[in-house]
Amino acid sequence: MSRQVKIGAVGCGVVASAYYFPFLMDHPEADLVAVCDLDEQRVKDCQRLFGAREGYTDYFEMLEKADIEAVWILTGPGTHKLFSIAAAKAGKHILLQKPMATTKADADAIQAAVKEAGVKCLVEPSQQSPLQRPFPKLRSLVKDGALGDPYWFSFIWTGPDHDNGGLGHNPYGAAAFLNKESGGMLYDYAYGPSQIVSMFGACKSVMAMSALQMPSRQIVPESDYTDYLAKATDPWDANYWDAVVKAPKTDACTMEAPDTYNILYEMHSGWIGMFHVGRPFHPIPKGVRSGAMEVFGTEGNIYFDPRPGIMATVYSTKQDMLENPDENGWMDIGKEGDLSKGKWPKPTPGGFNYYHESSRLMCDAILNDTPILIDEDWGAHINEMLTGAQESAETGKKYMMKTTVDW
Ligand SMILES: NC(=O)c1ccc[n+]([C@@H]2O[C@H](COP(=O)([O-])OP(=O)(O)OC[C@H]3O[C@@H](n4cnc5c(N)ncnc54)[C@H](O)[C@@H]3O)[C@@H](O)[C@H]2O)c1
């Protein structure tokens, strides 16, 4: 067999069991050597379901004892600095779930540790990054002037509205963006800055206002997930989301950080636009868009489009810059399929499975010593667009970005 990357994963939570572990279990370039979680039951069940040979409840013990060359850090944001720096110091490559950190100082420390150790680092999300194929195409259209001069953009992100039923907040786990340590809802949405940079290039400044509108919340008990995992028998169908959105929310929980943000981003390319973070509490009518990006230039527009299989639709007065526009001058840009080509129990038609794609990319980069576009520098820039928004909201002042990316 060709060489496999020896992986230890920390965090046997929802994202790990629903997305990463089934892929790692099957991927020919991956060997899921060890899994780790504070919750021993979750460790045992992930070993049973996904075939990891070793189980740990102490991350540092896993780093020391397991024969691994890379870690997949799939825990909540409060652990990311400690876990990433320890991994880098131990010479392990790192795949780090978003958000990179909840302060710029922590992101800086991770970036420095990775550079000093010379290990590879991928900072999620690869979704809504240049690695999702439509974005380089959209970036070229914007950069090459299909929209003319910059006018404005808006990106209202209210989702996910699971099955159109509304959600309000993550239905489980206070660590998932309700407690103070998690930084609040803003830090769930690295996808927003990532898409904005993917479309318009590096960010120059940030202004924001935030609010805590609904401090009292109800969530699904944490133990429900452990019970769900213990009963799961099909590793390809251990996706808790289907169960959790319908489960009764019986635990009272206090939202300790802001739950809505209205942010203005100024980009070096001249584009200025707004990004809204918040979540709907009630169903959205079928067929009505629940938040997407709209871009308006002096010569054209881009709409992210809710039609199946379509990512975005573009209009330009410079029709020769569009490929096969329709009779009204619009060009549709399709979604890319699941590039990982792995088994997937419930494929989203045309969906991009970012967890699979990032894992595949990380293994390739380690085995072939190739660079990673969404590395610690990209991650630090995207993350600063979050921490900068928080700082601006707290101080009432414009925040000037210190990091940049060449994209
Ligand atoms: N759930 C999703 O669909 C989803 C999607 C995209 C990204 N993410 C990201 O993934 C991360 C985890 O989210 P989740 O939804 O899986 O959360 P989760 O609460 O379901 O899982 C986190 C797990 O980490 C474990 N953990 C916490 N501290 C630990 C420690 N010190 N040592 C070992 N284990 C520890 C917890 O016991 C838990 O099992 C977050 O940063 C989130 O942004 C989640």
Written description of the protein model:
With about 400 residues, the chain is α/β, with parallel strands linked by helices. It has 2 domains: about 5-125 and about 355-375, Rossmann fold, CATH 3.40.50; about 135-220 and about 255-340 and about 380-400, Dihydrodipicolinate Reductase, domain 2 (2-Layer Sandwich), CATH 3.30.360. The protein contains 11 helices and 17 strands. A 9-stranded mixed beta sheet has the order 16-15-14-13-7-12-11-8-17. Strands 3-2-1-4-5-6 form a 6-stranded parallel beta sheet, with helices on both faces. It has a two-stranded antiparallel sheet with strand order 9-10. Helix 4 (about 80-90) packs parallel to helix 5. It is globular. The structure holds nicotinamide-adenine-dinucleotide (NAD). The site of nicotinamide-adenine-dinucleotide has 24 residues, from helix 1.
